[in-house]
Design brief:
Length: 282
C-alpha cells in the first residue's frame, strides 16, 4: 500500500506540471519563457540539494551529458510555450504519446529487437495524435502549439534515451538541470522587452513546478522505480495524461468532448501496447 501511494503521488506530481503551467499562463501572470526558466532554476536547486544530501556530491560528467542538457532545454521550453494555447490534459496527452514514439524510434535506430506488439502500439499512438492534431479532427487545436508540445515530447524522449546509461539517475538529472539553467537564463535575457512579464503568482507557480512537481517528483520516481515491476511502472505512467485531463476539468474548467475522449483512448491504447510487457508463454 505504501508503494502504491508513493507511485500515485509521483504520477500526480508529473500531471501537476501541466496544470501548473497552464494555470500560470492562462491567468496572464507570467510569460512562457520566464515560466520555463524559473521552473528550470528551481528544479536545479532542488535536485542539486537532494543530490548533495543523498549522495554527498554532485557529479557533472558522464556519457550523453551534452545531449541530455540540450534535450532538457527543448523539453522545458517546448512544454511551457505550448501551454499558451493548449488545454492541460490535451498537452499532456500529446507529450506522453510523442515521448513513447520517440523512445520507439530510438530503439529502431539502435537496432534493438522490437516486438510486433510494440510496433503496432507506436503506430496506434501516432494515429491517435494525428487524429487529435488534424484540422478536421475532434477538437480545434493550434497546430503551432501542438507541434511545440510534440517537440517537447521529442526532447523528453531523447533525454530519456541519453540517460539510460547513467548509473545514478538522480545525480544525472541534477547535473542536467544545473547545466541547462544558464542556457535558460540567457534565453530569458534575450526575450526581455518582447512581452516578458513575471508576477508574484506566476513566479510561485513556476517555482512549485520546478522544485516540487519536477524536482521532488523525479527524485521520488527514481526511488520507487526499482521496486516496481515493469508492468506496474508502465501502467503507472499511463495514468499521467488521465490525471492531467481530470485536473484540467476540475481545476481549470476545461471541457472534454467525446471525440477527444475517443482519440485519447486510441493514443493511450497504443502506448499501453508499447510499454506494457506481453504475457510470457509456457
Amino acid at each position: 500500500m505504501r508503494l502504491f501511494l508513493l507511485t500515485a503521488l509521483t504520477m500526480t506530481a508529473f500531471a501537476a506540471n501541466s496544470i501548473l503551467n497552464r494555470l500560470a499562463l492562462s491567468g496572464g501572470g507570467i510569460d512562457a519563457i520566464s515560466f520555463g526558466t524559473i521552473r528550470l532554476a528551481a528544479g536545479a536547486v532542488m535536485l542539486a540539494l537532494l543530490s548533495l544530501l543523498m549522495r554527498g556530491k554532485l557529479r557533472f560528467g558522464g556519457a550523453g551529458r551534452a545531449v541530455g542538457v540540450a534535450a532538457l532545454v527543448v523539453y522545458i521550453y517546448g512544454f511551457s510555450t505550448a501551454y499558451v494555447a493548449l488545454d492541460a490534459g490535451l498537452g499532456a496527452l500529446i507529450l506522453f504519446g510523442v515521448v513513447q514514439i520517440t523512445m520507439f524510434a530510438g530503439a529502431v535506430i539502435g537496432q534493438e529487437a522490437v516486438p510486433p506488439r510494440r510496433l503496432i502500439g507506436a503506430g496506434l499512438a501516432l494515429a491517435g495524435l494525428v487524429w487529435l492534431l488534424w484540422p478536421a479532427g475532434p477538437v480545434q487545436v493550434s497546430v503551432l502549439h501542438g507541434l511545440l508540445m510534440a517537440a517537447a515530447g521529442v526532447g523528453w524522449g531523447l533525454y530519456s534515451l541519453a540517460g539510460r546509461g547513467s548509473g545514478d539517475a538522480l545525480q544525472g538529472t541534477a547535473a542536467n538541470f544545473v547545466l541547462a539553467t544558464p542556457i535558460g537564463a540567457a534565453l530569458s535575457l534575450a526575450m526581455m522587452g518582447q512581452g516578458a512579464a513575471v508576477t508574484a503568482q506566476g513566479a510561485v507557480l513556476a517555482v512549485l513546478s520546478g522544485a516540487v512537481t519536477s524536482g521532488l517528483g523525479y527524485a521520488l520516481w527514481y526511488a520507487v522505480l526499482p521496486r516496481l515491476a515493469a508492468s506496474a511502472a508502465g501502467a503507472a505512467q499511463l495514468s499521467v495524461p488521465v490525471i492531467a485531463l481530470a485536473g484540467g476539468v476540475l481545476l481549470l474548467g476545461e471541457g472534454v468532448s467525446w471525440g477527444v475522449a475517443a482519440a485519447s483512448a486510441v493514443v493511450l491504447g497504443g502506448v499501453a501496447l508499447s510499454v506494457l510487457p506481453g504475457r510470457r508463454r509456457g
